Amino acid sequence: TRPVSFEGFQRVEKDQYPIQALREMLLNALVHRTYMGATIQMRVFDDKLSIWNEGGLPYGLSLEDLKLDHNSRPRNPIIANACFFAGYIDTWGRGTLKIINSCKEAGLPEPEIKELNGGVEVTIFNLNQPETSERLRNDFGMISERFLAEFGTLASRVKTDSAINKEILMNNFGLFSEYLRTTFGVSSDEIRSKFGEISLLTLTLIVIDKTVTAKIIAEIIGTSQRTIENHLTKLRKNEIVKRMGSDKSGYYEICKQK
């Protein structure tokens, strides 16, 4: 059940889930739980693990805020301070970001954070998910069968040292067409007709990982870095994507279309 690699003759087994993510999930539940309510509950499945604690989000704090830098508002400040002075918490307001980022670094799907039954549940997923076409349709709407069929060719070009994990592509590639339309108002057919197939595939990879570089996109698609840079320039000029931060350490965001 664990990813295995080798360093020389040494067999290396990685944990199914990042330890840092599990640690932050437990600390969040400990610090934010309503102690007059139910106990903290953990559920372990073949494809995911979730931790739930009673007590909703503080007033004015949304689920989307948890994915960004935000102020720390612990329900139990005495417990939070004890964890801080004990060295379990090193920064305030970054627990959920650490969960998200550690899963991303491990090549796992993005965690799910939601309010449920009067509490907050955090779920992390492993790579053993039964992502059948029927399940994808039920969860995300109709998918692009054409791109699912073409994905096998693209996946074979992904190098092992690529910043994008092959499993992430396999789990997400078929979803982008509907996701682009519903989230950003971007039509796949319109992008293809105006800017070409390479621009559409470039957008796909930005959806999967917005920190992706032109070099990595070129390796995956099988073209030159200059070609990808030219397509990104066209997409930026037409306000389909925008560059956030510096050229060296920034990332791309897809613009919502009016």
Summarize the model shown:
The protein is an alpha+beta fold. 43% of the residues lie in helices and 15% in strands.
Structure description:
With 258 residues, this protein is α+β, with helices and mostly antiparallel strands. Helix content is 43%, strand content 15%. It is built from eleven helices and eight strands. A four-stranded antiparallel β-sheet has the order 3-4-6-5, covered by helices on one side. A two-stranded antiparallel sheet has the order 1-2. The chain has a two-stranded antiparallel sheet with strand order 7-8. Strand 1 and strand 2 (10-13) form a beta hairpin. Helix 1 (19-32) packs antiparallel against helix 3 and helix 10 (214-221) crosses helix 11. It is globular.
Secondary structure layout:
Layout (H helix, E strand, L loop, with lengths): L3 E4 L2 E4 L5 H14 L8 E4 L3 E7 L22 H9 L9 H11 L6 E5 L2 E7 L7 H8 L4 H11 L10 H7 L3 H9 L3 H8 L1 H12 L5 H8 L3 H13 L3 E4 L6 E4 L4
Antiparallel strand pairs: 1-2, 3-4, 4-6, 5-6, 7-8
Helix pairs in contact: 1-3, 8-9, 10-11
